Amino acid sequence: MTQINFAAEPRHDWTLPQVEALFDLPFMELVFDAASVHRAAGFDPSEVQLSQLLSVKTGGCAENCGYCSQSAHFKTGLKAEKLMDADVVIAKAREARDGGAQRFCMGAAWRELKDRDLPRLAAMIGGVKALGLETCATLGMLTPDQARQLKDAGLDYYNHNLDTGPEYYGDVVTTRTYQDRLDTLAHVRDAGMSTCCGGIVGMGETRRDRASLLRQLANLPSHPDSLPINGLVPVSGTPLGDKVLKAGQIDSIEFVRTVAVARIVCPKSMVRLSAGRDDMSRELQALCFLAGANSIFVGGKLLTTPLPGQDEDSALFQDLDLRPMGVAKAVAPESVAAA
Ligand code: SF4
What is the pTM of this model? Predict the structure, then answer.
């Protein structure tokens, strides 16, 4: 039996059998243990962080991630767009802040960042930060120097997902290696930025692959500050989307198990429900919060896939007695409309 560390001191020496043993725990025990770790790590279980993500450059990506509507390798009908002007992005960030978001993430569908785009990105990041928001970006692979320049521009977080465990990785993408991803994460850490790193479940992987992903995340030199768990939103025309549309989506209880294990192996990370939340029932989301998820994306859209709208999130928060992280307890529930 894997010993769970309820003192919530981060470990970096997980073995695959240990993580698989967590997945195999009786469901009630697993969720109870994850909820206990959530509290022991110092989180208030009534608080959920709100982040908003804007696609600042959509489509036409040179990578072949088999789930992605933005890859130029697949015919999904998505129209490619150029990098947005900084002023437009800053105006969207202001709306997000006024709607209650704490963090604003800027996503570009690129294989890697090009130096020529750095000045415009620096203007965006500086403008968003000046609004009092935490800044995050996901721009593909980075060199060490680019990571330093983004940090100097005011970037707090950099998102770069591992997507899946190394064993299933070759079934997901072949145009960049697992090591490429680990290298970019190292450059981000070395530049002094916080990392946002997670993966996608429901791509046809096995439970062992999910355990392997979480083991990789837990054994990084420092745990991701944010750990997004995405449920695949199958997009017709993408190889993994078509596969899942035929075979069916991941079982929802297995999704909750994944969230719970993420909470246990990365006790202090913000475990974020990301893509796929629009397909989840309110009850499933409640179970995920119980199992230690404490962050969500809001705003009706996540890059190119839908999210619940503000009214739905507001009602969910009210019914579950949740509040946006950073908002005082005395605030009336209506203010979650801001969520
Ligand atoms: S997931 Fe990102 S890197 Fe992969 S194809 Fe989509 S936009 Fe490109």
Answer: 0.91
- How many whole angstroms from 43 Cα to the centroid of ligand 1? 32
**Residue whose pair of structure tokens reads 């070395």 in the numeric block:** 190
CA–CA distance, 88 with 41 (Å, rounded to integer): 38
pLDDT tens, residue by residue, 81-125: 999 999 999 999 999 888 888 899 999 999 999 999 999 999 999
Number of domains observed in the structure of the chain: 1
**Residues comprising the chain, all counted:** 339
Is residue 48 within 6 Å of ligand 1 at its C-beta?
no
State the Cα–Cα distance between residues 180 and 251, nearest whole angstrom.
31
Q: Flag whether pLDDT at 339 surpasses 50.
A: no
Within a domain: 209: yes
Atom of ligand 1 nearest to the CA of 109: 7
- Is 55 part of any domain? yes
Instruction: Say if 324 falls within a structural domain.
Output: no
Whether 138 is in a domain gets the answer yes
Domain that includes residue 289, residue range: 16-317
The rounded distance, in Å, linking the Cα atoms of 25 and 146 is: 43
Q: Is 303 in the pocket of ligand 1 (CB under 6 A)?
A: no
* Number of Cα atoms under 13 Å in the Cβ half of residue 191: 26
* Torsion angle in degrees (nearest 10) through CA of 142, 107, 196, 169: -70
3-class DSSP state of 53: strand
3-state secondary structure of 227: strand
Distance 64 CA to ligand 1 centre (A): 7
Q: Mean pLDDT throughout 281-307?
A: 86
Question: What's the pLDDT tens digit per position in 240-261?
Answer: 999 988 888 889 999 999 999 9
**CATH classification at residue 181:** 3.20.20.70
Quickly list DSSP for 243-287. Answer: HHHHH-PPPHHHHHHHHHHHHHHSTTSEEEE-TTGGGS-HHHHHH
